[in-house]
Amino acid sequence: MPEYDDKNTFILFYETDKKSEKSPDFTGNLTDNNGKKWRIAAWERTSKSGKNFLSGKVSEVTEGQGYQKAQQAYQNIKQKEEVVTDISDDPIDLSEIPF
Hints:
By secondary structure, the chain is α+β, with helices and mostly antiparallel strands. The chain has one helix at 67-85, and strands at residues 9-14, 26-31, 37-46, 52-60.
C-alpha cells in the first residue's frame, strides 16, 4: 500500500462546544503542498433563496493563539491514520475513493 500523502487535504470537525453564536460551526486543519499548516473555520449559512451552504476562512497556523490546539489536533489525526493504515487485511478498495 502506498504511503498516505496528506498534502492539499483537510479535515473539518463539527464544533459541539461553540463559545458564542459567532463561533464557527466547523473547524479543522489543512496541509498544503509545502507542508505548511493552515486552520480552517466554516459556518453553516442559508442564502436568500433558501439554499444551504458553507462559508469559510483559512488562516495560517502560527505559533501565536491557537497554535498548540491546532498542532495537537493534527497529531491526533495522524495517530488515528497510522492505526488505520496498519491494518493489512483492509477490505476497502482505496482506489475508489473520489479524492
